[in-house]
Amino acid sequence: MLNKVPEVTAIFWTIKILSTTVGETGADYLAVHVGLGASLTAICMTGLLAVALLLQLSRRAYVPWIYWLTVVLVSIVGTQLTDLLTDKLEVSLSASTTAFACALAATFAVWYGVERTLSIHTIVTTRRELFYWTAILFTFALGTAAGDLATEALGLGFQLGVIAFGVLIAATAITYHIGANPVLTFWLAYILTRPLGASLGDLLSQSRDYGGMGLGTIQTSIAFLSVIVVLVAWVTFEGDGTRRAGPAQ
């Protein structure tokens, strides 16, 4: 089948960051404001994710709206995984960050051991796609835990969190452009965009008493979802969303 991952462009990273923000604010809205609670939200979103993932796996080529719907749902589920560990099981953020980092490292190790590549330019079999989505889930969970650890447990705050993670992503981009391994820098950037998006979402949605701007979770979620829809429609109808199968890397 054709490669199932879109081209890594500015639009890709924009939608990715917006998706992570929606994952943070959307999960908070459903769990707190709607009153579903963390457990029921996680169950409902996991069910929707399973449906979206089956739809994604059934396609033979990259379909923008299916792919990005799956990413948004993975973002919400990844957020809920961390929140369940922290709020329900009282696992410390440092412990959950370490656990998710180990889980992601193990996923990469098995993936590379089986396929001999971690490149997203070669997601051309169902097995590789399953490895890919497993890694994506753990990057979201890890990014959520690490972001909360930095902004809350370590007292960095939402505003400084956005700046700090933005600087780290910029540094990763610079190392890529001066010759660093493209696969390594991609996955580092992918992990870092999660706490960046989460910090941005909290900065916009949380009340001023907690260091936010007080826009609210529903307004922030709707605004960012609207931009995602526009961008996905753009890449779909302009033809930029369909990716040609690339050479093995």
From TrEMBL:
Residue ranges of the TM segments: 30-55, 62-81, 93-114, 130-150, 156-176, 183-201, 213-237
Protein name per its UniProtKB record: Membrane-anchored protein
Pfam families: DUF347
Keyword Disulfide bond included in the entry's annotation: no
InterPro entries (alphabetical): DUF347
Keyword annotations: Membrane, Transmembrane, Transmembrane helix
Origin: domain of life: Bacteria
Origin species: Bradyrhizobium centrolobii
